[in-house]
Structures are given as C-alpha cells and as structure tokens.
C-alpha cells in the first residue's frame, strides 16, 4: 500500500510539474516566479531597460511594472519540435502582456499577466482557393477549459513551452559579455 501511494505521488508530480509557476484565480491566469539574485534593484532596472521587447510603464521604490510585446514562444528551448508544438505557440505567433517585478534583498518576484497573441493569419490553399483566418488567443484560453479548470495535458507541452519562455524573459541574472576588443 505504501508503494502504491508513493507511485501515485511521483506520477502526480510529473504530470503537474510545470504548473508550479502558473496561478489560476477567478478565471485569470498569471505566471509568477521568484528568482534569487546577487544584483541590486538598480542593476536589475538597467537590465530591464536594455531589453528590446520590454517597456517600463511605472517604477516605484522596489517595483518595476510594464509591458512586453513581440515575444515568440521558445519551443526549441523547451525541448519540442515545430511539428510537436501547438500552432498558437510556434514562431509565427507573437505575444504581448503585462509584467511586474518586485524586488527584495537577494531576490525578486516576476509576475506576468494579461498575455495574448498579436494574432497570426493562417491560410490554407486547395483547388486554387485560399481560406484565411486569424488566430489569436489568450493565456486563459490556452490554460483553462470552458469550466474554468486547467486543461488536461496543458503542463506537458504548452505549459512547458510557455514556462520556459517566461523564465527566460524574466531572468535578469544572466551576464552578457560586452568586450569590443575581440
């Protein structure tokens, strides 16, 4: 009986492992992660200002708020192929949303919300005719079903791709080498 219980816990952990950074509250989905850092608030602020797809809209004592746009989900870094990636997460679809970074000594918490796609046009050709449609989606429609529950299988592919992309976007601990005397 103990072995069966342990097996159940392990399987549950693998099935829902990628959901740890996603928060569902009243039909809204947010992504949130706490990072440990050796950088100061000013150093993180400088890194945020230098990112191309991030715009700061508000800055308080230990908080940075803003928006991002033109974000492409990195399915390759998540270990998936183009054919194994949902069409709304491939490189032809770009995303925008809001972020908030709250800083405390030695760590910061990044929150991403109101994520939606900029929309992509999908055209299918057959018998000389073209059928086109616009695909746009929100984080909520990718994560939640009609009952407001997390979709079965979300954590396995889409959840992992989104999680890896957001982790990469909000990780300001990386140091870029800027050496012009190569």
Care to describe what's here?
This protein is α+β, with helices and mostly antiparallel strands. The chain contains four helices and eight strands. It has helices at about 1-15, 40-50, 140-145, 160-170, and strands at about 20-25, 30-35, 55-60, 65-70, 95-105, 105-115, 120-125, 130-135. Strands 1-2-6-5-4-3 form a six-stranded antiparallel beta sheet. It has a two-stranded antiparallel sheet with strand order 7-8. Strand 3 (about 55-60) and strand 4 (about 65-70) form a beta hairpin. The N and C termini lie far apart (about 65 Å). Mean pLDDT is about 80; it is low at about 1-20.
Q: Please give the order of strands in the largest beta sheet.
A: 1-2-6-5-4-3
**Biggest pleated sheet:** 6 strands, antiparallel
> Tally the helices: what do you get?
4
**Cα separation of the termini:** 63 Å
Strand portion, in percent? 35-45%
What's this, in brief?
The chain has 182 residues and is an alpha+beta fold. It contains 4 helices and 8 strands, in the order αββαββββββαα.
Write the layout of secondary structure elements.
Blueprint (H helix, E strand, L loop, with lengths): L1 H14 L6 E4 L2 E9 L4 H10 L3 E6 L3 E10 L21 E11 L2 E11 L2 E7 L2 E7 L3 H5 L14 H13 L12
Antiparallel strand pairs: 1-2, 2-6, 3-4, 4-5, 5-6, 7-8
